[in-house]
Amino acid sequence: MGEKLHATQIDLPEEIRVSVIQLLNQSLATALDLKTQVKQAHWNVKGPQFVALHGLFDEMAGELDGFVDDIAERVTALGGAALGTARVAAAVSALPEYPADIQDGLDHVRALADRYAPFAKRVRAAIAEADELGDADTADLYTGISRAIDKRLWFLEAHLQAPR
């Protein structure tokens, strides 16, 4: 991030803010990508669990929208520019592309679980990194996101753990 930060009275040194902003912008891209992948599942799910999964996926996308906004606002509060376009998200996201050829509800559940798990891992790593940088507020932001993502992963995996 070569641009100059905006002035702020937040008492974190500029070099710390630059590092935290880079961390947050990476998370922003990945969270945006995850949200669009959840919407992909929401729009295309088929099968006997359609109504329940369609609603669950929409709820999950809405929750991710809130996290995206929280992350972007933390970037700007620290004096940075939130980098949240679709092109940036596609270029920077840590997630694999969502499969375009699935329709079955449980296939979507599996694909989303396979994306929520690495996102959860990255969020936990970001907690530690923000903490090491001395930014307890950003670490706390990530902690809240981590709890919610783990809960959603549990919801997804519960569909896959039922005996058949």
SS-derived structural category:
mainly alpha
Mean pLDDT over all positions: 96
Q: In the CATH scheme, what's the topology name?
A: Ferritin
- Based on DSSP secondary structure assignment, what is the total number of beta strands? 0
Which blocks of ≥5 consecutive residues have pLDDT under 50? none
Gyration radius over CA: 17 Å
Question: Could you provide a short overview of the structure?
Answer:
The chain is mainly α. Helices cover 73% and strands 0% of the residues. α1 (14-44) runs antiparallel to α2 (50-77) and α1 packs antiparallel against α4 (105-132).
What's the layout of helices and strands?
Layout: H1 14-44, H2 50-77, H3 86-92, H4 105-132, H5 136-161
Helix pairs in contact: 1-2, 1-3, 1-4, 2-5, 4-5
Task: Report on the architecture of this protein.
By secondary structure, this protein is mainly alpha-helical. The protein has a single domain, classed as Ferritin, core subunit, four-helix bundle (Ferritin), CATH 1.20.1260. It is built from five helices and no strands. The chain has helices spanning about 15-45, 50-75, 85-90, 105-130, 135-160. The chain is elongated, with a radius of gyration of 17 Å. The N and C termini lie far apart (about 50 Å).
